[in-house]
Amino acid sequence: MTTPRKQVILGAYLGGVNHHTAWWHPEAGSQIDFDSFEHTARTAERGKFDFFFLAEGLALRERAGKIFDQDIIGRPDTFTVLASLAAVTEHLGLAGTINTTFNEPYELARQFASLDHLSGGRAAWNVVTSFDAFTGQNFRRGGFLDPADRYVRAEETLNAVRALWDSWEAGDLVANRDSGRFLARPDAGAFTFRGEQFDISGTFTVPRSPQGRPVILQAGVSPQGRDFAAANADAIFSPYGKLPEAAEFYRDIKARAVAAGRAADEIKILPSASFVLGDTEAEAVEKYHTVRDEQVTGQTALILLEQIWNRDLSGYDPQGPIPDIDPDPDAPPVIQGRAFVHQDRFATARRLREVAAAKKLTLREVVIDQFERGPLVGTPAQVAEQIDTFVQDNGSDGFILGSHLVPWGLDEFVDKVVPLLQDRGVLRGEYTGTTLRDNLGLRDVHAATPARAET
């Protein structure tokens, strides 16, 4: 029997506070105006994407006490943007990154349940934790959690939020025929949750939402992060855009999900990727090199390495060799407000030196070689082939795509690559589900049923 071809999941992200966005490009649009968010979301829906995704920036990032001059400044409130997009889209999922360290379960549960109602079942929550005291200064409690405690609070926050969502059963809302009012059944919304982090009780104000529970997204690379994601997430963002390491990550997460008592297909693996298209492969490669060289300037390369070394590297020549000194993890942070994604500074520095020596690369060339996010480069047919092959070979279940050019860059992908994926039979021609869970192929979690008349 022939195994059915996997369907490709597609998410779209709007470039934000990072060096991947070519904000200096003369055709680049605003990072704040609603028109940019709307255009990207409408374009993604036109391409039958599964969801639109927003990252989060809770603090303006700094280097040595000064704001990065190569970063975009500002990101509007996530819930405000997604709720606005719910009014101008019909099928597209709406995913937001919201922190568990500085938010309370009750408000998180209400916000996401409300978004799910407003959008007709299209809300998703990317669960993240805080990583530094610098960010915590913006919040009432200040400070931050130790790494060992971050996932403890995150897991308890998620469990509490789910308890509030589940406090309403499907069908708890009843329509009174005489008055036309909706009435709640006795005890609907009543909740009590007690744990190490929270001791809360009351009545949840938002009835069961169209999905039952909004979709949960997560990104975890450390063993603790992988276990948390495998046990709790509906989809996880993979940091690997190249086989075979992507396939190994895929196998590991799926195995952890099974070990946590779930089916392997209950969690989807989604790496982020950029793309560059050309009429010929040579043209695409030339365009890619131009974009890449603009993105990774000498200054950007030094800053990315400073995050690993935790030293001021401004005296090093980007066209020279990689630093031969060791990182200094115990010094005050040189870079503030950036999530640290490398588990071992010394091992990472050693690996970069080995790559530089083996490939005879300069400092800047090493950064370009090692910090890429798996770009998809080629003709539309070649990029469609790359995506399809990667997914069928279990490198992922799909991709979260973004362009260096905000907000117009995604148009080219939708116009030229999406039809080819549809011709291959791996991308829907029309939406068939009514919720994001439906479109992602996720199991039902007791979604809301229409209010029935009281008899």
From TrEMBL:
<protein>
    <submittedName>
        <fullName>NtaA/DmoA family FMN-dependent monooxygenase</fullName>
        <ecNumber>1.14.-.-</ecNumber>
    </submittedName>
</protein>
<dbReference type="GO" id="GO:0004497">
    <property type="term" value="F:monooxygenase activity"/>
</dbReference>
<keyword id="KW-0285">Flavoprotein</keyword>
<keyword id="KW-0560">Oxidoreductase</keyword>
<dbReference type="InterPro" id="IPR011251">
    <property type="entry name" value="Luciferase-like_dom"/>
</dbReference>
<keyword id="KW-0503">Monooxygenase</keyword>
<comment type="similarity">
    <text>Belongs to the NtaA/SnaA/DszA monooxygenase family.</text>
</comment>
<dbReference type="InterPro" id="IPR051260">
    <property type="entry name" value="Diverse_substr_monoxygenases"/>
</dbReference>
<dbReference type="Pfam" id="PF00296">
    <property type="entry name" value="Bac_luciferase"/>
</dbReference>
<feature type="domain" description="Luciferase-like">
    <location>
        <begin position="28"/>
        <end position="392"/>
    </location>
</feature>
<dbReference type="InterPro" id="IPR036661">
    <property type="entry name" value="Luciferase-like_sf"/>
</dbReference>
<keyword id="KW-0288">FMN</keyword>
<dbReference type="InterPro" id="IPR016215">
    <property type="entry name" value="NTA_MOA"/>
</dbReference>
